[in-house]
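Weekly sync, protein design subgroup
Attendees: M.S., D.O., the rotation student, P.L. (late)

Item 1: inverse folding check
M.S. brought a backbone from last month's batch and wanted to see whether the design step gives back something sensible before we order anything. D.O. pointed out we never logged the input encoding, so this time it goes straight into the notes. Structure tokens as presented (184 positions):
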């Protein structure tokens, strides 16, 4: 029973770390990257739709991205959604067939803002991990009547080790993203 709780915890924490890495990828660095546009929601016929479902994205140059919509009627909506996206600073233009997005050079000040943003996202991810840990600890405490206290104590130590391991994974991803952001 304890093993089931720990396996479920590991699975949930791994998903949380992956979500944090995806969230880090949405913060732009000096290069244009299709992943930055993963969270862009386009108002397509009245319903918010992820950009990736409406168009293909290509990266012809380091600071530009070409977005080819599957439905040409969505061009204006895609262009507006990219322009309205916070923390992107992109300048989209459309020529009737494609949307061309040119990313401006990052200033040192803007890089520092992005580092702060990424650190905030990293801290949010760690808070989420601690929430998962707390819930799992409550589940372990509920098992106290079925198994001995020694088993629960061992389970809690394993839970702490699992939590520490996943927090370290987030810290590593955070450090990689920070160096990527500060690289000129």
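Designed sequence read out in the meeting:
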């Amino acid at each position: 029973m304890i093993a089931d709780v720990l396996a479920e915890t590991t699975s949930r924490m791994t998903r949380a770390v992956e979500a944090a890495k995806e969230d880090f990828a949405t913060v732009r660095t000096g290069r244009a990257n299709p992943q930055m546009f993963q969270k862009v929601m386009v108002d397509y016929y009245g319903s918010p739709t992820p950009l990736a479902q409406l168009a293909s994205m290509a990266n012809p140059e380091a600071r530009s991205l070409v977005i080819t919509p599957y439905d040409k009627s969505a061009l204006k909506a895609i262009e507006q959604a990219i322009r309205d996206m916070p923390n992107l600073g992109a300048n989209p233009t459309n020529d009737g067939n494609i949307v061309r997005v040119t990313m401006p050079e990052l200033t040192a000040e803007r890089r520092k803002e992005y580092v702060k943003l990424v650190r905030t996202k990293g801290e949010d991810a760690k808070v989420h991990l601690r929430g998962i840990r707390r819930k799992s600890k409550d589940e372990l405490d509920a098992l106290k009547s079925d198994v001995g206290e020694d088993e629960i104590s061992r389970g809690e130590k394993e839970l702490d080790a699992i939590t520490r391991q996943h927090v370290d994974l987030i810290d590593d991803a955070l450090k990689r993203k920070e160096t990527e952001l500060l690289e000129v």
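Discussion: The beta strands are 41-44, 47-50, 55-61, 64-69, 91-94, 99-102. The chain is about 60% helix and 15% strand.
Action: P.L. to compare against the previous round before Friday.
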